[in-house]
From TrEMBL:
Keywords: Membrane, Transmembrane, Transmembrane helix. Residues 55-181 form the EamA domain. It comes from the Bacteria. This is EamA-like transporter family protein. The chain crosses the membrane at residues 6-23, 30-49, 55-72, 84-102, 114-132, 144-160, 166-184. Pfam families: EamA. InterPro entries: EamA_dom, EmrE-like. GO terms for cellular component: membrane. The keyword Cell cycle does not apply. It comes from Brucella thiophenivorans. Gene3D superfamilies: 1.10.3730.20.
Length: 194
């Protein structure tokens, strides 16, 4: 459910990119945004879930990521990708060290290679995300993040042996379709302008 809630981030980013970055979003893409949001709500299935305060964590993470993406796009006009990458890494490491030092547990020697791989993959993906915001508009980058939902569902089924319910499958299909439509509309707009 956390991953499903986080899928609202592209919708928030696209909505926020209009007032905060001055990017253009046509009426068809607004419809796609709201259809995608409906798909996320279908996945969450609010009719069968009693509100739990723990849901505020993924909701807050979604809002914070949306503002992070907008800020990354805004500073990409003046800063290089490496500058953004450096300050994001230093800021994140500082905050997580201050929090993590109180919850630290010893790491087994055989887990260190996995930790190194996790760090390398995280750094590479974070740099690629910053670089994407440097090159493209936020509304062009965000539809690709809908793939997280599909990949997350596959990992849940294959690795954690979870069952996918009808509402998760239907909602994921709606979210991915809305994201792909949004990407398609952006490409059409770009071709018309060039």
């Amino acid at each position: 459910m956390t991953q499903s809630i986080f899928q609202a981030a592209p919708l928030l980013i696209t909505m926020l990119s209009v007032p905060l970055l001055g990017e253009k979003v046509g009426w068809r893409r607004w419809i796609a945004i709201f259809v995608g949001l409906f798909g996320v709500m279908l996945i969450i299935d609010p009719t069968h879930v009693q509100f739990d305060w723990e849901l505020m964590f993924p909701i807050t993470a979604t809002v914070m990521f949306a503002f992070y993406a907008i800020a990354t796009r805004a500073v990409s006009k003046t800063d290089t990708s490496m500058t953004s990458f450096f300050y994001t890494g230093v800021g994140g490491a500082t905050v997580l060290t201050l929090v993590g030092v109180f919850h630290m547990e010893p790491i087994a020697p055989h887990d260190w290679p996995w930790m190194a791989a996790l760090c390398a993959c995280g750094m590479a993906s974070h740099y690629c995300l910053i670089r994407a915001y440097d090159i493209l508009e936020a509304v062009e980058v965000q539809p690709l993040t809908y793939l997280q939902l599909v990949i997350g569902a596959l990992i849940a089924v294959i690795v954690f042996n979870e069952n996918l319910t009808w509402n998760i499958i239907a909602g994921a299909s709606i979210v991915v379709a809305a994201g792909l439509f949004s990407m398609f509309r952006e490409r059409m707009r770009s071709k018309r302008l060039s």
